[in-house]
Amino acid sequence: MFHVKLPGSDAIARQDDEQVASRQVKLPRRVVQRPLRQVTRRLLMALAVLVITAFIVYADRGGYNDSSDTKVDLLDAFYYATVTLSTTGYGDVTPVSDSARLINIFVITPLRVLFLIILVGTTLEVLTERTREEWRLNRWRSNLRDHTVVVGFGTKGRSAVQTVTATGLKADHVVVVDPSSKVVESATAHGYAGVVGDATRSDVLLRAEVQKARQIIIATQRDDTAVLVTLTARQLNRTAKIVAAVREEENAPLLRQSGADAVITSASAAGRLLGLSVLSPSAGRVMEDLIQQGSGLDLVERPVIKSEVGLKVRETEDLVVSVVRGHRVLGYDDQAIGTLELTDRLITIVRVSPGTTSVPDSRPLPQD
């Protein structure tokens, strides 16, 4: 029976984020003006229309009559402009001359219409914003298929997303799940959809459409959380490829029993890289280069081409690390390989120049 070893207090870097405020889906933001800026701009436009109308009335004040003192001053002009543009019309200030009435017909009436359009348009935009967002969210849910769900958008999660997107995965096929709304906002700013909530809860994973996902990357801060997320995700999706990261190596078997197809031990992997760099700095740099996706040396998986059928591993042009045959992953020096077959797949090391992308086949590796 396995027991989960919990990390120390220094590993819980985001303890405050474990308290979920509200579980919601956030789609990548469109490049639009901020709502406050839009409302402010429209209010300034309405105020400009009001000022223009007031000065038009004041310039022709001799053609207006005030029922209180017959004279129309600047205050009366602003008062008339306000009640006229708002269609209130008390009738205490009225145009009496032909010129004032003509100005009302051809100038002030269009300004009144413009004033109402500005105010009504702002109100309608605010009222319909939620409806548009709901429609966009429903369309996103209906179109989402074979996507990648990333649980945890810390250092490990961000690096994992950068790696899979560097191999050709589109940003709109990545959904990030994290309990911190600030972290999810950071993810949406990069073009990914995000779900705010605790991924150990099935309703949160269902918001991320995990039941339709092709790949699930679990990069939580705690090993016990990773186990619960893996169990929940595997229950909701029996066929998805699940890759999880743990801090303690002794928790890796428990992750595999919970349904993870591959488990990466972050602490021991980092420790081995440190040790390798001490023993051989050059070898450490090569390993670090392999880890960094998109430049230098990359590991890719590809099918065997027809011209390679019948050749030995060392006779291929690429540097072959392993051969995938059926459900087995064989090392390059394994005598069982013999010659390459058309159904084999090769794991090779290739050189990638900056600005180019190595795109391996997206199908998951078979398990031993």
At a glance:
This protein is an alpha/beta fold. The chain is 42% helix and 17% strand. It is built from ten helices and 13 strands.
Q: Can you describe what's shown?
A:
The chain has 368 residues and is an alpha/beta fold. The protein is built from 10 helices and 13 strands. It has helices at residues 35-59, 74-85, 98-143, 155-166, 181-189, 202-207, 223-236, 252-258, 266-279, 281-291, and strands at residues 24-26, 64-66, 93-95, 148-151, 174-178, 193-196, 215-218, 241-246, 262-265, 296-303, 319-325, 328-331, 345-352. The strands form 3 sheets. A 7-stranded mixed beta sheet has the order 1-6-5-4-7-8-9, sandwiched between helices. The longest helix is centred in the first third of the chain and has 46 residues, at 98-143. It is elongated, with a radius of gyration of 33 Å. It starts with 23 loop residues before the first strand and ends in a 16-residue tail after the last strand. The relative contact order is 0.10. Residues 5-23 and 361-368 have low confidence and may be disordered.
Radius of gyration: 33 Å
Helical coverage, percent range: 40-55%
Q: Any low-confidence stretches, pLDDT <50, length ≥5?
A: 5-23, 361-368
Q: What gross morphology would you assign? A: elongated
Largest sheet: 7 strands, mixed
Strand content: 15-25%
The strand order across the widest sheet is 1-6-5-4-7-8-9
Helix-strand topology string:
EHEHEHEHEHEHEHEHEHHEEEE
Total count of helical runs of at least 4 residues: 10
Q: Give the number of DSSP strands.
A: 13
| Helix-strand makeup class | alpha/beta
Query: Whole-number average pLDDT?
Result: 80
The N- and C-terminal alpha carbons lie at a distance of 22 Å
